[in-house]
Amino acid sequence: MFGVGLPELAVIAFVAILVFGPDKLPDFARQAGRMARKVRAFANEARDELREELGPEFADLDFKDLDPREIVRKHIIEAMNDEDDEVTAVATPLAEGELPPWDVEAT
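The chain above was modelled as a monomer; its predicted structure follows.
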């Protein structure tokens, strides 16, 4: 999820035990769990409120759809799958002495 593997988690746990001590660590873990649940509930409420405000046509709105990478990926895939695209001409080799096409506006 965050790119943290098992060795990193072990180091974090070891440092936490050293810093907070074994007596206070369960309390901090409990507080962290409560905070994570509150943040998740807050995010779910915000998502539901946004869907409600946008109306029924956005009832299936997913926050992943708002990610710019997903938007670009979606449009690229649509462009690749679009059957209405013009078929590009097949490149033919140039004859000997023939100059390649030159577009003055492109350079």
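The chain has one domain: 6-80.
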